[in-house]
């Protein structure tokens, strides 16, 4: 007769006190289970919060109704391409190498980033508008002294606006 391992099926060992004590820092199966349940609960909570933050960001983008000047979108496309270039340099590649590998022209790559750039610009404009309207600011006390202030202010402002929206929103289930 074939064993379970020969058939390629993995079978988890029974969860016993002996196994828990020998493989973990816990003394009982019950303590181990509670720890696992707590970690799963925390993980699910983080996932739900992240999803909610993504939904709020999408809501901001969807609710910016103003026409976005092309110059702003092109500037954002340029910024995205510079980030791609920086990433490629880590592998000793340039943008021209990337274009050859993908078989795309620079214009095609710019078009690929266009829609994402529109969303990014709308998101940033929405954040700025909400911050101005609700008088949300980044204070010096919010900043980490070990990091350049300009590098922190934009992400902190975005976080504060999203937090403000979450604290003040009436969230309905679909």
Fold and architecture overview:
- The chain has 174 residues and is mainly α.
- Helices cover 68% and strands 0% of the residues.
- It is built from six helices and no strands.
- Helix 3 crosses helix 5.
- It is extended, with a radius of gyration of 25 Å.
- The termini are far apart.
- The model has no long low-confidence stretch (mean pLDDT 89).
The portion of residues forming beta strands comes to under 5%
Number of strands: 0
Stretches where pLDDT is under 50 for at least 5 consecutive residues are none
> Helix amount, in percent?
55-70%
**Structural class, please?**
mainly alpha
Largest sheet: none
Provide the succession of SSEs. Answer: HHHHHH
User: In angstroms, what separates the terminal alpha carbons?
Assistant: 54 Å
User: Please, what is the average pLDDT?
Assistant: 89
Oligomer: single chain
Q: How many distinct helices?
A: 6
Output the radius of gyration: 25 Å
Shape: extended
Blueprint (SSEs and pairs):
Elements: H1 17-23, H2 29-62, H3 70-89, H4 95-102, H5 106-134, H6 149-168
Give the tags.
single chain, about 170 residues, mainly alpha, 6 helices, about 70% helix
Brief synopsis:
The protein has 174 residues and is mainly alpha-helical. It has helices at 17-23, 29-62, 70-89, 95-102, 106-134, 149-168.
């Amino acid at each position: 007769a074939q064993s379970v391992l020969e058939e390629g099926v993995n079978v988890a060992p029974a969860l016993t006190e002996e196994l828990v004590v020998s493989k973990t820092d816990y003394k009982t199966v019950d303590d181990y289970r509670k720890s696992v349940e707590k970690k799963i609960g925390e993980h699910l909570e983080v996932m739900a919060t992240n999803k909610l933050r993504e939904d709020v960001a999408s809501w901001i983008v969807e609710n910016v109704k103003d026409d976005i000047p092309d110059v702003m979108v092109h500037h954002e496309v340029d910024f995205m391409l510079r980030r791609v270039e920086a990433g490629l340099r880590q592998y000793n590649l340039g943008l021209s190498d990337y274009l050859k590998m993908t078989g795309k022209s620079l214009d095609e790559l710019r078009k690929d980033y266009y829609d994402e750039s529109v969303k990014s610009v709308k998101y940033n404009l929405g954040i700025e508008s909400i911050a101005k309207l609700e008088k949300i600011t980044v204070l010096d006390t919010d900043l980490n002294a070990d990091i350049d202030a300009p590098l922190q202010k934009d992400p902190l402002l975005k976080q504060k606006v999203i937090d403000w929206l979450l604290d003040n929103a009436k969230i309905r289930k679909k």
